[in-house]
Design brief:
The chain is mainly α and 134 residues long. It has one domain. 66% of the residues lie in helices and 0% in strands.
């Protein structure tokens, strides 16, 4: 098993951006990925607040690909999709079937994605709240 760190998580996220940008051109594939992420989250134990924002991240990507919300950098959207691709990847750095530690790499990659998109995710949440209350 390879060692894992936040630097490795950042490297993995950045390495997946090109694939994510290509995937963003195919809406049905993005929808399938987002459904797979939502399904995967059902098996991940809650650890802090990192994964609590993943549904908001999914919602922002959905709003972006439907062009309902476009006030976000395409690079931020690609970073989110890259983190989702890692999350659903079958071969993780730390295998998901290892008790307690199996999701640490998934959580780290999600944490890096949140750090990259934090301000834009907050802006999206504010926009969505205003839209819902209108």
């Amino acid at each position: 098993m390879e060692s894992f760190s936040l630097d490795k998580a950042k490297e993995l996220l950045e390495g997946g951006i090109g694939k994510a940008q290509d995937l963003l051109k195919d809406t049905p594939k993005v929808d399938a990925l987002l459904e797979e992420v939502e399904e995967k989250l059902k098996s991940v134990p809650t650890v802090g607040t990192t994964l609590a924002d993943v549904p908001l991240m999914i919602s922002m990507v959905k709003s972006y690909i439907t062009q309902e919300y476009t006030e976000v950098s395409p690079k931020v959207v690609a970073s989110l999709v890259a983190s989702f691709l890692y999350l659903v990847k079958k071969k993780d750095i730390i295998p998901d079937n290892l008790p307690l530690v199996g999701q640490l790499d998934d959580i780290a990659v999600a944490a890096v994605a949140l750090k990259v998109c934090g301000p834009e995710l907050k802006a999206y949440a504010d926009w969505r709240d205003k839209k819902d209350n209108a």
